[in-house]
Amino acid sequence: MAFSQLVDSLQIIRVFSMFQSFEVTSTPQFGKERVAALRASFADLEIDAFLVPRADEYQGEYVPKCSERLSWLTGFTGSAGVALVTQSQAIVFVDGRYVTQLVEQVDGTVFTGGDLVNEPPHLWISRHGQKGLRLGIDPWLHAGAEVRRLEKALGDVGGTLVFLPHNPLDRLWTDRPAEPLGAVAIQNIAQAGVLAKDKIAAIAADLGKKNLTAVLVADPSSIAWIFNIRGADVPHTPHPLARAIIDASGNAELFLDKRKTGIEAEAYLAQICTQRPPAELSERLEAVSKDGRILVDPDVTPYALTELISRAWGEVVEGADPAKLPRAVKNAVEINGSAAAHLQDGAAMVEFLCWLDQTKPGTITEIAATKQLEGVRARVGQSMQNPLKDISFDTIAGAGEHAAIMHYRVTTETDRLIQPGELFLVDSGAQYINGTTDITRTVGIGAVPEDQKRFFTLVLKGMIAISLARFPKGSRGCDLDPLARIALWKAGADFAHGTGHGVGSYLSVHEGPQRISRLSTQEFLPGMILSNEPGYYRPGSFGIRIENLVYIREAEEIEGGDLPMYGFETLTYCPIDRSLVVTGLLTHEELNWLNDYHDRTREALMPLIHDHDVRAWLENATLPLSH
C-alpha cells in the first residue's frame, strides 16, 4: 500500500467516531443479587416464575440500551435468548451460536443453559414445570403467538399465565437508560424505488379486499419500509421505534415521537400520514377497533396491544404483516442499489485484506484489525461519495480459538494478537443508504495446518453448492439447507447455525421471513436477498465461515429440462483465500465456479481501486487455481 494512502487511512481512523465499542458490557458478577431481588418480588406479584426475553416492546433483534433487560439480569449479551427464573432455577435459553458465549458471560453458580431451538421455554415448562406453576410475563414483551404457546404449556401442568401490570426488572434497574430519540431521515425514491403513498395505497386496497377495517403495523422495519424513512433508535439498524395504523380507506396514522423528526421529515410525513405521539396509540387503536376487524401479525405484535383491540370490542384478525413479503422481495431499484453498495464494500474489503496480508503476523490485535476495517470503509465511502452510515452489526473478528465462537465480540478484555499459523475469521457488514452488506472471510495468517485447510475447503464446497443451486418454484429454505452441509456431513461434521438469513435494503441485516435453514418453510421468491454462509467450528481451536450475499433471480429455462428454475445471483465480490483451498477436494464444476468468481471479482473491483499495491494484491488474490 502506498505510504500516502496509509497515512490517509490512519488519519481517517483517528478522526472517525467508531460505530463499534470494545468495552466489556457483560456483568455476570451481578447475576446472583439481581436474580435474588427478582425472586423477592414474586410474592407481591403472586407468581412462581418470570420470563425475561431478549426482545423489547417492538420485538426487535437489536434493542436500545434501555431494553437490554436480559443482559442486565444475566450478563449474556447475545442477540437471541430468553431467561426463565423460578424460585429454584434460572435457565438462559440460547441457540447453537451462543452456547460457548453463554458459558463465558454468566455466573454458572446461578444460571444454567437451555436449548432455545429444541426445548424453548414453553416446551421446557410442558416437560419440567411444577404443577400449578404461575408464570408471570410482561405482555408488552411477548407476541400473541408466543403467549399461546406458553398458555398451552402451562395447561399441561395445570398452571396459569399471569400478565403483569409492570415489569419487575424495570423497578429493580434503578439506573436504566432513557428511551432513544434517534433522528429520522427520509429514504428518497432513488433508493426506495416505490413512493410511500403507493405502498400505503396498496396495503389499504388489500385490506378492503379482505373486508378488514385496518392493520396495526407493529414492526419498526415495516414502518421504515412503508413510510420510506430511516431512524437511529437501535444499534446498527436504521429503523425508528414506531407503530402505525393504516385503514382500508388509505388513512395512515404514524405514532412517532416528534422529537425524532425535524422540519423536513415532518413536512414529508404530513403529506402521507398523520403523525401522532406514541402515547396516543392506545386511544386511537381503541377508537379504530370498535366494532372493526383489525389485522395484526401474531409474531411481532405485543400481546398487550392485541388484548386492547379485544377489550375495545374489535375483532382481532391474525395474519402476516402486510409489508413483510413486499419488503423481502426487493424491487429493481433496491437490487441495483444493493449491488452498487456491495461493489463499494468489496473495494473496502480488498483494501483491508491487502493491509492485513502485508502486516507482519503477530503485530496486530483483533481490535486493531476491526478498527482498520471500519476506518477503511469510512474512507472508501467518502471517496465514492456514498458515506458509511453505520456498520450493520458488531464486527466478529476472531483469531485462533476465538474464531470458534460463532458470534464472538472482541473486547478490551479478550483482545489478542493475531498470530502466525492460525486462521482469522472476520464477519462484518455495513449500512449504506443504497444497501446493507454482510460478508465473512476466513484467512490464513502464514502457513496453517493442513487439517484446517481441509475443513476450509469443505465449507467452501457448501458455499459453492448454494451459489450454483437451481430450484423450482415453491422451494423453501429447508429444501436447500442440506446442500451447504453435505460435504461436512460426509466428513462427520456440521455447523450449529442456519446457512443463510434474509437481508434488508438499508434496514436490518437479519430480515425475515426468508432463510436458508432446517426450519424455514417460507417459499423463495425472486428479489429476496439472503446470506450464504456455511461454517465449521472446533471449540478452543479454530473456526471457519465463508459468506456472500445472493439474491433470487427470475426463473430461467434450462435446456433439455421440463421446468423453469430459479437460481441465485451473487452480490458480494471479494477474494476467497486461495492459500486455504485444497483443490483436490473440489470437483471440476466447483473449481470452475471459484475461478470464474475470482475473474468477476477482479473485473468488478479493479476500476474502483486506484492504489498500485492494492491493485497488485487483488490481481494475485484472484489468480486461477487448477487441479
Task: Describe the 3D structure.
The protein is α+β, with helices and mostly antiparallel strands and 627 residues long. The protein folds into three domains: 28-172, Creatinase/prolidase N-terminal domain (Creatine Amidinohydrolase, Chain A, domain 1, 3-Layer(aba) Sandwich); 185-326, 3-Layer(aba) Sandwich (Creatine Amidinohydrolase, Chain A, domain 1), CATH 3.40.350.10; 329-615, Creatinase/methionine aminopeptidase superfamily (Creatine Amidinohydrolase). It is 36% helix and 19% strand. The protein has 22 helices and 28 strands. The protein has a six-stranded mixed sheet with strand order 4-3-2-1-5-6, with helices on both faces. A hairpin with a 2-residue loop joins strand 18 and strand 19 (435-436). Helix 6 (121-128) packs parallel to helix 7. The protein is globular, with a radius of gyration of 25 Å. 50% of the residues are buried.
Brief characterization of the structure:
The protein is 36% helix and 19% strand.
- CATH 2nd-level architecture of the largest domain: Alpha-Beta Complex
CATH topology of the largest domain: Creatine Amidinohydrolase
What is the total number of structural domains? Answer: 3
Instruction: Trace the largest sheet across and list its strands.
Output: 4-3-2-1-5-6
Average per-residue pLDDT, rounded, comes to 95
Shape: globular
Count of separate DSSP helical elements = 22
| CATH class category of the largest domain | Alpha Beta
The percent of residues in helical segments reads: 25-40%
What is the CATH superfamily label of the largest domain? Creatinase/methionine aminopeptidase superfamily
Low-confidence stretches: 1-15
Please report the total strand number as a whole number.
28
- The rounded Rg comes to 25 Å
Distance between the termini: 32 Å
Structural class: alpha+beta
Strand content: 15-25%
